[in-house]
Write a structure and sequence with these properties.
By secondary structure, this protein is an alpha+beta fold. The chain has one domain: Invasion associated locus B (IalB) protein (Immunoglobulin-like, Sandwich), CATH 2.60.40. It is 17% helix and 39% strand. Strands 1, 2, 3, 4, 5, 6, 7, 8, 9, 10 and 11 form an 11-stranded antiparallel beta sheet that branches. β6 and β7 form a beta hairpin. The termini are far apart.
């Protein structure tokens, strides 16, 4: 009895320094608002003295080597003043040398990307300005995003994200690093029929 009382007192004494402590908003999710399935996190960077935001949406990802789907997340954010899109998975989904990310919005034509595989190849990043702009242009009005990853050494991975409400997520996530617009399509000059040889 005495030992259990002493144990309870010890727990209380050890916990006292933690009373009143709270996590810094920069690393917590206390400032999250929603738009459709999106979670938009608005916080202030105390170092830079500026507001920053990011937006994410989750989906269950299927993998050729797993019996059951696992959580995955798509994030829109600024990284070193540049807009990026990243996908996070619970397991390795590829490698830098022999893996490819493709995606398709709704019934639009699909795209292959030059995405980078990082963090033990469980995170995939789209960071090329042109690819980010193309992705975001279609995302703004889409309802569903389907992605698939092909990898020689990590098998196949797929996920389908419900992306309704993306326009608010895009505006918040890229408020401090706007996405560069795609250049207008180049017209190829052709000779008139009379001048052709």
């Amino acid at each position: 009895m005495r030992a259990s009382v002493l144990g309870a007192i010890s727990v209380v004494v050890l916990a006292l320094p933690l009373v009143g402590c709270k996590r810094d908003p920069y690393v917590s999710t206390s400032s999250v608002v929603t738009s459709g399935q999106w979670k938009i996190d608005r916080i202030s960077d105390r170092v830079a003295g500026a507001p920053i935001s990011s937006a994410s949406v989750s989906a269950m990802a299927s993998h050729a080597g797993e019996l059951f789907p696992q959580d995955s997340y798509m994030h829109l954010s600024c990284f070193i003043n540049s807009p990026v899109i990243n996908f996070k998975f619970a397991r390795k989904v590829g490698s830098e040398r022999n893996s490819f990310l493709g995606y398709r919005f709704d019934e639009n034509p699909g795209h292959e990307t030059n995405a980078r595989f990082v963090a033990s190849a469980s995170t995939v990043i789209i960071e090329d300005d042109k690819e980010v702009a193309e992705f975001i242009r279609e995302l703004a009005t889409a309802k569903v995003l389907y992605i698939r990853i092909r990898s020689f050494n990590a098998g196949r991975t797929t996920a389908e994200y419900k992306v309704d409400g993306a326009s608010a997520a895009i505006a918040a996530a890229y408020a401090t690093c706007p996405v560069k617009p795609l250049p207008p399509p180049q017209r190829v000059a052709t000779q008139s029929p009379s001048k052709r040889r």
